[in-house]
Each structure stands twice: as structure tokens, then as C-alpha cells.
């Protein structure tokens, strides 16, 4: 929209069900904009869906476990799978910005377009240890 609202970072992330999101970090607005997308049946086009805005100073994908880390404006480090907040992340040795959740865990704002099967939990837990 405006010149100062250009994305400073762009990445692709996916959730535990394999849904993909194109994420744009707009630092000037403290927003991470995530656009859901999927390939067409014939694999020749991308189909873009809902857009979700997440309050963020910074964000990065954690590809091995289908999540992303988001640094909120309050300084909290939060783990997301797709656009669903999973919980806060605490790093030993660093002071915790606050000990309470800044907001309640949101429910997904849009219904799933298709039924997906989550990856096996044992595979995810093994990957989490490596990360």
C-alpha cells in the first residue's frame, strides 16, 4: 500500500497438516502477514487463500518441525504451526519478558479447505530434539 510498508523478510512455512503459508514481515507495522496457498490439481498454478495478520517484530520458519518462531512486540518468543499459536518459548539464560500469556490461544480463523493427516508425533518429537 504505502512505500514504508514493504516487507523486510519473506519466507514459506507449513503447519503440521502440510498446509503452506507465504509469510511477509512488515517491520514498520509490526505485522507478519501469512497467506495460505496450495498448488492446483495439475500443478501449473498456485491458489491463494485467506490472509492472517500476526503481531510480530520478527519471525523465522523452523522447517524440520513445520513451525515458525515469532518475536512479538512485547518481546515474547512464540511458536506457531501455520497461523495457530502453540505456546511461548523460553531460552535458558535469557530473561523472560513476562510470565503470562499476552493473549489467549486463538482458534483457527478459517476452516480447513481439505482434510489433512498430521505427521506422526514421534517423528516431530525426534526432530525437535535435533533443533
From TrEMBL:
Disordered: annotated span: 100-131
Keywords: Cell cycle, Cell division, Mitosis
Superkingdom assignment: Eukaryota
InterPro entries reported for this sequence: Apc1
Record field: compositional bias (Polar residues): 100-119
Gene Ontology biological process: anaphase-promoting complex-dependent catabolic process; cell division; metaphase/anaphase transition of mitotic cell cycle; protein K11-linked ubiquitination
Any one cellular-component term (Gene Ontology): anaphase-promoting complex
GO molecular function, one term: molecular adaptor activity
PANTHER family listed in its UniProt record: ANAPHASE-PROMOTING COMPLEX SUBUNIT 1 (PTHR12827:SF3), MEIOTIC CHECKPOINT REGULATOR TSG24 FAMILY MEMBER (PTHR12827)
Protein name as catalogued: Anaphase promoting complex subunit 1
Protein's organism: Mustela putorius furo (European domestic ferret)
Lineage, uppermost ranks: Eukaryota, Metazoa, Chordata, Craniata, Vertebrata
Amino acid at each position: 500500500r504505502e512505500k514504508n510498508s514493504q516487507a523486510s523478510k519473506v519466507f514459506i512455512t507449513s503447519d503440521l497438516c502440510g498446509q503452506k503459508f507465504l509469510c511477509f514481515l512488515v517491520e514498520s507495522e509490526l505485522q507478519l502477514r501469512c497467506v495460505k496457498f496450495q498448488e492446483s490439481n495439475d500443478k501449473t498454478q498456485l491458489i491463494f487463500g485467506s490472509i492472517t495478520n500476526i503481531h510480530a517484530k520478527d519471525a523465522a520458519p523452523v522447517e524440520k518441525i513445520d513451525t515458525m518462531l515469532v518475536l512479538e512486540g512485547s518481546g515474547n518468543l512464540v511458536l506457531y504451526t501455520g497461523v495457530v499459536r502453540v505456546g511461548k518459548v523460553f531460552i535458558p539464560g535469557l530473561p523472560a519478558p513476562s510470565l503470562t500469556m499476552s493473549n489467549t490461544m486463538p482458534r483457527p480463523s478459517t476452516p480447513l479447505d481439505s482434510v489433512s493427516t498430521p505427521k506422526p508425533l514421534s517423528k516431530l518429537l525426534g526432530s525437535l530434539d535435533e533443533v
